[in-house]
Write a structure and sequence with these properties.
This protein is mostly beta strands and about 750 residues long. The chain folds into four domains: about 55 residues, no CATH class; about 120 residues, Sandwich (Immunoglobulin-like); about 280 residues, Pectate Lyase C-like (3 Solenoid), CATH 2.160.20; about 180 residues, no CATH class. About 5% of the residues lie in helices and about 45% in strands. The chain contains four helices and 56 strands. Strands 33-34-36-39-42-45-43-40-37-35 form a ten-stranded parallel beta barrel. β54 and β55 form a beta hairpin. The longest helix has 14 residues. It is globular and about 95 Å long. The N and C termini lie far apart (about 115 Å). This is Na-Ca exchanger/integrin-beta4. Keywords: Calcium, Integrin, Ion transport, Repeat, Signal, Transport. InterPro entries: CaCA, CalX-like_sf, Calx_beta, Pectin_lyas_fold, Pectin_lyase_fold/virulence, RHGA/B-epi-like_pectate_lyase. It comes from Desulfobacca acetoxidans (strain ATCC 700848 / DSM 11109 / ASRB2).
Length: about 750
């Protein structure tokens, strides 16, 4: 009897398991339920796979065993997509299936589109990733998020690259260029189509203005400057236009030589790009579409312009921004990836009613200010900006050319004229600035705001090389993680004056002697003002002086604190490990000046001074009439390697508080005026030494520790700088055992 062939367990399960589970397959499906079989063909090196469920028959997909022959690549090397869809996919293929898992990494590697939310904004999002081809798979896609903005711009590209394949080779088609088509631009005007030459010889002003007017009349778009040098001046611009070149090294827009010849006048008084000409002014109650500059160098050509008499040089602007100050709307302005160089007046002038973004730009040799603010109701965001130049000394005030020279100040804020249309909100005279990662190596930072101005300035990671000058009664300024370099040149000292609220956090201050003719030298100067209630805070800041200080013969002071009237409630605080450090300094803190000797409410908390050992931690002054002004000094956990105190004309109105003060005996030196004992003392100091001598200085309440003994000071002693003799302290053995 012929034996029946044995059914495999898999076959039995294929018949009974569906019924057991209550599954009701069609009869044809049950009979055609395929069983995976692998039939090795050793001669061809291939396999066949039958899928587990294949109605209608056995379908097979060949898989190449020679995995090294498989190639992974982009299906196409280029494609395009509109901004509007929001998503896009780029296809990657494997030339044939393989029996192993294939992986390939991908990433965005370039192009003109941006994936950073700065400047004109983010165009797409594509995190780096890895595609995984399981055995038998031959197609995968890379997803991109396309971000639709409201900016007029050129079509932009994203370059995507493949790399680091595993179990497959990488072909030459490893780069894909995706073009994002702008969805907002109504017209693209190439200036050469309107007659511009771009040869650096012909005046292209009229041709470029024709291109601008074309875009203006069409409702917005781009004015494109191909590679070249374009000579222009007095261009009138409006919102909704993007000025774009082929790159800052390829496209240069330049002021022509000798503008006095073109204008028929001796002095330069024209603007290269002006938003406030008649017929082009923005006047509305909502903010405008942006004016954009991108991938261009703007050259003010200042070396080939006439000398300017007195202040006339201050009115030949480069980019001048202002909207109708009687309305609430502001001009929206963006400049990105541009250079502005050799300007006659300012790089960018921000007057009233402006909202500006300045990103990834370079300013070089811009007279007065790389960026200058002249009016209120403005907001400015600045990031990744470098300002360079040479700061010359001012001329004498009686010079017929004026006392200004082509000097450079990187940031220049002044006047803050009111924007009347928004004055009801209290912001009509307000200037707000946020600056991140800015290098100001050209004259530094100048704020000379007048009374009635309001300034709110926030900066992080700034480098200020030249001078730091800020004054204005209604200023609020905060700097973090920044470096401030004081050159100590005439009119270029670093100081804050007449300022409302000012805070430095984790900042480094460096003092240098570039001029030896100064009467005094310091690392930083703080000048409170009578009647202005200022708050000055330094948190974890370092003040250093370099070796150039050694050549200066006058007094060298770390921080100078100017005096003020007692009617003002100024507060000055050094907190959290601030330090003054330079072996060339005579004083760490020097308070008072010839006009207002006393300083009000100064606190040093967790403070360190490391200066010349014969110098003084504190140098103070008081008013000789003993009525108008008074010092109020508090020291808490202050360490120092120098003498303790030099005080001219102290009096009974002054206050000095010592807390957690531990010092060595050789640092306990006090030189003061006759009335030092009349000062209002509080707290105490702990003085450590081997011998308590008869001339050991002391303040009532001090403790002197020597060996196992300690003594209490019950009578103040010091060296009288008026009598030129020692006034002895009274020390008694401390019976309290403190």
């Amino acid at each position: 009897m012929k034996k029946r062939p044995r059914k495999s367990m898999l076959g039995i399960l294929g018949v009974f398991l569906p019924a057991f589970l209550g599954l009701n397959f069609p009869a044809t499906a049950k009979s055609d339920l395929a069983i995976i079989e692998q039939r090795a063909n050793h001669s061809s090196g291939s396999q066949q796979i039958r899928t587990a469920y294949q109605p209608g028959g056995n379908q097979t997909h060949p898989i190449t065993c020679r995995n090294g022959d498989a190639v992974v690549e982009f299906r196409h090397t280029s494609s395009s997509v509109s901004e509007n869809p929001g998503t896009a996919v780029v296809e990657v293929k494997l030339t044939h299936p393989v029996d192993k898992t294939v992986t390939i990494e991908y990433a965005a590697a370039g192009g003109t589109a941006s994936r950073i939310a700065e400047g004109t904004g983010k165009d797409y999002d594509l995190p780096a990733g890895t595609l995984v081809f399981e055995p038998g798979e031959t197609t995968k896609t890379i997803p991109l998020t396309i971000i639709h903005d409201e900016v007029n711009e050129l079509d932009e590209t994203v370059e995507i690259v493949l790399n680091n394949p595993k179990n497959a080779a990488l072909s030459g088609k490893k780069t894909h260029t995706l073009t994002i088509l702008d969805a907002n631009r109504k017209v693209l005007a190439n200036v050469k189509d309107y007659g511009a030459k771009g040869d650096g010889i012909a005046i292209d002003k009229h041709a470029v203005q024709l291109a601008i007017d074309k875009v203006k009349n069409e409702g917005g778009g781009c004015v494109f400057f191909p590679k070249g040098v374009y000579l222009v001046y007095n261009l009138r611009i409006i919102p909704g236009i993007t000025f774009v070149g082929e790159g800052r090294t390829n496209t240069i827009v330049k002021r022509p030589d000798h503008m006095e010849i073109l204008e028929g006048s001796k002095y330069t008084s024209n603007t290269m790009f002006n938003s406030y000409e008649s017929g082009y002014q923005y006047s509305a109650d909502i903010d405008s579409e942006p004016i954009i500059f991108k991938n261009i160098t703007i050259d003010g050509n200042s070396n080939n312009q006439p000398l300017c008499n007195n202040y006339s040089q201050e009115h030949a602007f480069t980019i001048y921004l202002r909207a109708d100050s009687k309305r609430r709307g502001r001009i929206n302005f963006i400049i990105e990836d541009c250079d502005i160089i050799d300007t006659v007046t300012d790089g960018i002038t921000i007057d009233r009613n402006v909202k500006a973004t300045i990103y990834n730009c370079i300013f070089r040799n811009c007279f007065r200010g790389s960026i200058t603010w002249n009016g209120g109701y403005t907001d400015t965001y600045i990031k990744n900006v470098d300002c360079y130049g040479v700061q010359a000394d001012f001329r004498d005030r009686n010079n017929p050319l004026g006392w200004y020279v082509p000097a450079i100040s990187a940031f220049h804020m002044e006047m803050s004229r009111k924007a009347l249309g928004y004055d009801g909100s209290g912001e009509g005279n307000l200037q707000r600035v946020k600056a991140l990662k800015v290098n100001l190596s050209a004259g530094g930072f100048w704020i000379t705001a007048s009374y009635g101005s309001r300034i709110k300035f926030y900066g992080d990671s700034l480098t200020i090389n030249g001078s730091f000058h800020a004054q204005g009664p209604a200023c609020e300024l905060e700097l973090k993680n920044s470096n401030i370099h004081n050159l100590n040149r005439r009119f270029y000292e670093s100081y804050i004056n007449n300022t409302g609220i000012f805070k430095f956090s984790r900042c480094n201050f460096l003092g240098q002697a570039t001029s030896l003719s100064q009467k005094e030298l310091c690392i930083f100067k703080i000048l409170p003002w009578p009647g202005v209630n200022g708050v000055f805070t330094f948190d974890n800041c370092i003040f250093r002086g370099d070796a150039t200080l050694a050549g200066f013969s006058g007094p060298k002071k770390g921080i100078i604190i100017g005096g003020t009237k007692v009617s003002a409630s100024n507060s000055l605080n050094f907190l959290n490990n601030c330090k003054v450090s330079s072996k060339y300094l005579d004083y760490a803190i020097y308070g008072g000046d010839i006009y207002h000797p006393a300083i009000s409410h100064v606190r040093l908390i967790d403070f360190e001074a490391e200066i010349n050992s014969k110098g003084y931690l504190l140098g103070l002054n008081s008013n000789t009439n003993q009525t108008d002004e008074a010092n109020d000094i508090g020291l808490d956990n202050v360490t120092f390697n120098c003498r303790y105190l030099a005080w001219n004309y102290p009096n009974r109105h002054d206050k000095l508080c010592n807390k957690n003060m531990i010092m060595k005996c050789n640092n306990n030196y006090i030189s003061a005026g006759n009335d030092f004992a009349a000062v209002n003392f509080s707290g105490s100091r702990i003085i450590q030494g081997s011998i308590l001598g008869p001339n050991t200085p002391g303040i009532i309440g001090d403790i002197f520790k020597t060996g196992n003994c300690q003594y209490l000071c019950t009578g103040t002693g010091f060296y009288s700088n008026q009598l030129n003799r020692q006034i002895r302290a009274v020390w008694v053995k401390d019976k309290e055992g403190r």
